[in-house]
Design brief:
Layout lengths: L37 H14 L5 E3 L5 E3 L16 H8 L4 E7 L4 H13 L6 E5 L2 H10 L4 E3 L15 H7 L2 H10 L3 E5 L3 E3 L13 E5 L24 E8 L3 H16 L10 H14 L5 E3 L8 H4 L3 H6 L6 E3 L6 H10 L5 H4 L9
Parallel strand pairs: 3-4, 3-6, 4-5, 8-10
Antiparallel strand pairs: 1-2, 6-9, 7-11, 8-9
Length: 362
């Protein structure tokens, strides 16, 4: 898919009589014309029209027109009609996609995450599900075809505030996106963009299980821990993270996603119960596992630690050095706090290594 496209009018020949360029009659005395005078500007404009010189514009939502920074880039509105099926077909490699869902405030985290994936040579299979038009256009302007928007658009002003209804509306779309992808016949890995890859996760996706996931609990597990769904906690459910999931296009995976959607519909957000998508995911895993309808696989804690373990247990980090694959910067709230923590651990790559990202400097 070409990232640029040149549209130029045919160059027309200039009139052989220079006097035709002047708005004055040839009977008047010819005076020097300043380019800054009204007459000079009209002459310059006329020459530009004749030579076919024009300023490229890109149409943006809401009828606004914004100047394209790239000069000869296509109208970005073409991405409005870009479908998930088209995007998946373009991006998938060997039937697999890596997916994230991003709103504009998270673009720096998206770039940081992409740099780490590029280092593992898996970036070409990344599809960004843009949750607003600004993200859709900015990604596709820099990396054509790698972002798609699935209407409706969420409220980006509240979508990044954990515990808000906007955050619930944002995260509750996740199982629908994933279900659409597996129903198209693709395997899909989902990541939140506050993650960093230190290694290649795909060798850890052993066997042909339906759903692979990570434990969000901080207590240390033995290195040879079970890969079964962990037992429920005091609240009666498991504490699996919904931020790192791999699904194969199997009936079992589709059933988990459909059950997850049903759980979210049954337990919507309210001021009293500020829900998010993770409890619903855990209930879905438990319900389908109890009836032996799905083949589940818990990924090793040493390779996929939660932020509550990796950033808070220095002894464990030393003992498992060289085993870490994907680090999740959770167990902390706020953009600035997450960025500072990444900085402190040498995991904020955007400032010095933005050239390694397919998006460059955002």
């Amino acid at each position: 898919m070409s990232s640029t496209f040149l549209h130029q009018r045919p160059i027309q020949a200039l009139p052989s009589n220079p006097s035709l360029l002047s708005p004055r009659s040839s009977n008047f005395t010819h005076r020097p014309v300043s380019v800054f005078s009204r007459t000079g500007l009209l002459v310059l404009l006329f020459l530009m029209v004749l030579l076919g010189i024009f300023i490229p514009w890109s149409e943006m939502p809401g009828g606004l027109l914004l100047l394209s920074s790239g000069g000869t880039k296509p109208a970005l509105t073409k991405w409005r009609s870009y479908t998930l099926a088209q995007a998946a077909s373009f991006v998938a490699k060997n039937g697999t996609l890596i997916v994230c869902a991003v709103s504009e405030p998270y673009l720096p985290f998206l770039n940081n995450w992409l740099i780490s994936i590029t280092r593992q040579k898996h970036h070409e299979k990344v599809l960004v599900i843009a949750e607003d038009y600004a993200t859709l256009y900015r990604v596709n302007e820099k990396w054509p075809g790698h972002a798609v928007l699935i209407p409706p658009v969420v409220d980006t002003q509240t979508a990044h505030k954990f515990g808000s209804q906007g955050f619930f509306n944002f995260t509750s779309r996740r199982p629908r996106h994933l279900l659409s992808i597996v129903e198209l016949g693709y395997s899909v890995m989902y990541n939140d963009v506050d993650m960093v890859w230190l290694g290649d996760p795909f060798p850890y996706l052993e066997g042909h299980h339906d759903v692979y996931f990570t434990d969000d609990m901080a207590p240390v597990k033995p290195l040879n821990h079970s890969h079964d769904l962990p037992p429920p906690n005091k609240k009666g459910r498991t504490y699996i993270c919904s931020c790192m999931i791999f699904l194969r296009p199997t009936p079992g995976a589709k059933l988990v996603l459909k059950t997850w959607i049903e759980e979210l519909e049954a337990q919507p957000w309210s001021r009293a119960k500020k829900a998010n998508d993770q409890p619903g995911f855990n209930w879905a895993l438990m319900k389908t596992a109890q009836h032996q309808q799905v083949d589940l696989y818990l990924l090793p804690q040493s390779a996929f630690p939660t932020g509550g373990l990796y950033f808070k247990n220095k002894t464990w980090v030393k003992e498992t050095k060289g085993m870490h694959v994907i680090i999740h910067n959770n167990y902390i709230l706020g953009f600035e706090k997450k960025i500072k923590r990444f900085h402190d651990y040498g995991l904020w790559l955007v400032d010095d290594h933005y050239s390694e990202s397919p998006l460059g400097r955002l």
